[in-house]
Amino acid sequence: MANLKDIKKRIASVKSTQQITRAMKMVAAARFRKAQAAIVAARPYAQRMQQVLAFLALHEDPEAHPLLQQHERRGRAMVLALGSDRGLCGGFNLNIAKACEQLIGNNPDGFDGFELVVIGRKGREQLKIRGLQADQVYEDITAEATYATAALLGQEVVQNYCAGTCDAVYLIYNAFFSAIRQEVVIDRLLPIAPTVPIAPADTGFPVHPLYEPTRGEVLASILPKHIEVQIYRAFLESMASEHGARMSAMDSASKNATEMIDRLTLQYNRVRQTVITTELVEIISGAASIQ
């Protein structure tokens, strides 16, 4: 049986840990509110741009721009996985790793191989645990992901696709719904897939798009911009999901610490009661033997 001193030390240790988890929850909550406001503000623009580009892809000749072209060969596909640099956020990175494993294992489009690009140190570690080796890792950029960072990454993706280094680009990230709900999304970023609307009135787009100044200039500007915007949106979704997951994880940890403290306190009182009872019995027995 554990003695009183050991139990008391353990209670103090759990209380100290609980103070840390509560502080981390408060920090995560503050960052979560900021990240939530950012993704709510960015979503309408990103979604509308995605609709516009899908509509243009439906009506444009694929030869008008390399980003509209479907590569006939099925060589290598790039998988861009957005994880985190910091841990203690529940299954945030584990779910990303599982989605990467599923996509690469199933290989629905029949590619010969995959190039795995991972954002975040913890994301890379989870992939390594599951036997997936990252070809390229970007670390220390998830804490404050800016549009400039997303733009640089988007430019690299566009260059690789146009040069034929990869024949498709998939984007895997945690989509934000609420502080307690995040869902992993696998988007095919390139080539830009056309969508068929039910009716032109449903989209608000004209049947035949008009370009100003020229079609070539507009496509050369808006298509790479679209890739940058979608990557930036994924960054914001991932940031909000990470802070929400960490806030939930720290809240659960704090509650578990409270339950553990209660159990240890009960154990401490029982042991203390046993010690007192034993001492009383010894005193009474000693007094009786003297008489």
TrEMBL record:
GO annotation, cellular component aspect: plasma membrane; proton-transporting ATP synthase complex
Pfam families assigned to the protein according to its UniProt record, in alphabetical order: ATP-synt
GO molecular function: ATP binding; proton-transporting ATP synthase activity, rotational mechanism
Topology of the protein relative to the lipid bilayer: Peripheral membrane protein
Its job: Produces ATP from ADP in the presence of a proton gradient across the membrane. The gamma chain is believed to be important in regulating ATPase activity and the flow of protons through the CF(0) complex.
Intracellular or extracellular location(s): Cell membrane; Membrane
Complexes and interactors: F-type ATPases have 2 components, CF(1) - the catalytic core - and CF(0) - the membrane proton channel. CF(1) has five subunits: alpha(3), beta(3), gamma(1), delta(1), epsilon(1). CF(0) has three main subunits: a, b and c.
CDD domains xref list: F1-ATPase_gamma
UniProt keyword Protease present: no
Family the UniProt entry places it in: Belongs to the ATPase gamma chain family.
InterPro entries: ATP_synth_F1_ATPase_gsu, ATP_synth_F1_gsu, ATP_synth_F1_gsu_CS
Matches recorded under SUPFAM superfamilies: ATP synthase (F1-ATPase), gamma subunit
Protein name (record): ATP synthase gamma chain
Primary localization class, coarse: membrane
GO annotation terms (biological process): proton motive force-driven plasma membrane ATP synthesis
UniProt keywords, alphabetically: ATP synthesis, Cell membrane, CF(1), Hydrogen ion transport, Ion transport, Membrane, Transport
Xref: HAMAP family: ATP_synth_gamma_bact
Native organism: Syntrophotalea acetylenica
Coiled-coil regions listed: none
